[in-house]
Amino acid sequence: MGKQNGELMKAKSPVELGEVSVNSNTQEIDESLSDEVYELLWGHDRNTIPTAVDYAYEQIWKQLVFSNEQKEQRLSDVSLAEKLGVSRTPVRQALERLVQDSLVRYDPRRGFWVRMFTIQDIHEIYDLRSALEVLALHLAAPRLDPADLRSQLDLLYKVREQLDQRPISLFLQCDFRLHTLLIRASGNGRLINYLSTLRSQFSMFQVKDTRYPKRMETALDDHEQILLALLEGNIDKAAEFLAAHIAHAKANVLADIFEKQETSS
After folding, report:
1. Which of 27-31, 128-132, 158-162, 171-175 is the least confident region?
2. 9: which DSSP letter?
3. In terms of CATH architecture, what is 119-264?
4. 187-191: which pairs have CB atoms within 8 A and are 24 or more residues apart?
5. In this structure, how many other beta carbons lie within 10 angstroms of the beta carbon of residue 19?
6. CATH 1.10.10.10 domain locations along the chain
7. Considering the entire predicted model, what is its pTM?
């Protein structure tokens, strides 16, 4: 990847997402999806006129979340600056923001590195996610427009009809839109901002889950239960389904980590 071993970006483009595809028979995650996901998570907090730091942050964030790599890699601010066409200062500031978001780690002697998540990290991330998203759902329920819920349900059925084609981009679009709808409708700015940071940490796991068609099918079933319960006005049942959905996602990530450890041992 790139001119030097272990670099994040490729030399020709700061964001090349084609490599995220699982294989040649699978629909790829295109760049427009990474743009939409970033907008869904951070659009509410973006500057009207992005700075060089904002640009560098966004490009590196997309590559971290949508990259198919799963190993620790050093992030060279010199190389990134060259590939992004900006100076080192905004790149370093962007990397420092990513450290605060727990997507990058910093070693005073070795520089910036892609963050690798431990089993303890996964427990903490998903336990927090469950508590906060369920809270968001309860706050959002009186504000939700049934038309928006039905629109989301229509998109879900569209994805389900195409499951045999593994519609990765459409599935992720459906997934991120639903959770964003529930979170933003909470009307709690601090909750929205905190969940945006937390979602950055588990978004990469949502992307990797698309390697498994059965997981996509299960997630759609979970989403359908949540939406139908909300349309019926059964908020407690919707919250119960949401908590179960997040528990399923957590179990999948932990299974992947254990499998990876067994493979490498």
Report:
1. 27-31
2. S
3. Up-down Bundle (1.20)
4. 187/139, 187/140, 187/143, 188/136, 188/139, 191/132, 191/135, 191/136, 191/139
5. 13
6. 18-114
7. 0.80
Please provide the CATH number assigned to the domain covering 18-114. 1.10.10.10
Q: How far is CA 130 from CA 14, 138, 217, 243, in A?
A: 33, 12, 20, 6
Classified as helix, coil or strand, 187 is coil
Distances (CA, A) of 58 to 55, 62, 63: 5, 6, 9
Which DSSP state fits 22?
S
> How many Å apart are CA 117 and CA 190, to the nearest integer?
25
pLDDT in tens, 200-249: 888 888 888 888 889 999 999 999 999 999 999 999 999 999 999 999 99
**DSSP summary character for residue 215:** H
Exposure string over 202-230, b if 16+ CB within 10 A, otherwise e: bbbbbbbbbeeeebbebbbebbbbbbebb
Q: Which residue has the tokens 């990397």?
A: 95
Instruction: Return the DSSP state at 10.
Output: B
Which positions ≥6 away from 245 have C-beta within 8 Å? 219, 222, 223, 225, 226
